[in-house]
Amino acid sequence: MIHAGLNTYVTLSALLFVIGFFGVLLRKNTLVIFMSLELMLVASTLALVAFSRFNGTLDGNVFVFFILTIAAAEVAVGLAIIVALFRMRRTVQVDELNALKH
Which of 70, 81, 82, 65 is CA-nearest to residue 38? Predict the structure, then answer.
């Protein structure tokens, strides 16, 4: 079995974060942007767990627990906002949702 070191986890975390970052910058669909934000959040939690395991402490795991708890609430609120916008405007494209007026 191949043992993955800290560099492997940090590299994977950075790659996931960059993919999510460019997904937020380049996509026009609010659902895809939301998924890209979640991917960035997962990348940060992966880095926290990797550093926690490398240091032999549980600090990173505790932070991940709180991050995932907050992320669950964020998903519920974010999807509710996206559904409300879709019901009002009949679209989820960011270009068409740029104004706060009707």
Answer: 70
Instruction: Out of 1.10.287.3510, 1.10.10.10, 3.40.50.2300, 3.40.50.720, select the CATH number for domain 6-97.
Output: 1.10.287.3510
Q: Would residue 56 be called left, alpha or beta, if left means φ above 0 and alpha means ψ between -120 and 50 degrees?
A: left
For 93, the 3-state DSSP assignment is strand
> Can you give the pTM of this predicted structure?
0.85
Q: Which residues are paired to 93 by β-bridges?
A: 29
> Across the 102 residues of the chain, what is the mean pLDDT of every consecutive 10-residue run?
87 97 94 93 94 90 90 91 87 75 59
